[in-house]
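Now for a chain:

_____
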Amino acid sequence: MARHCLLLDLVDDPESMVRYRAWHEPGRTPEAVIRSIRAADITAMEIYQLGDRLVMIMETGPAFSAETKAKADASDPDVQAWERLMDQFQTPTPFARAGEKWTPAERIFDLAGH
């Protein structure tokens, strides 16, 4: 199992943030998106919010490949519709590379190593 920590910003608008959060309530995220996540061998996913900053923690199994997931998502019209919907709420962090949405963070501390 691998753990991934990714960051993304939200558009700094309180109403927009409320709508974004509502789309992530149980039963509101489209089933095609949930299926895509699970099919990619993402075994756990949580998103946390502080102000306009989001942090996603993902745990993945051995079959996970970010490249394979990106290709599968690009060819899935339901996932693409979700991405277009989310684009109105999201903005890359200042640290994102061109074309990057969720930006990986570097782990700098692990209690297990101490």
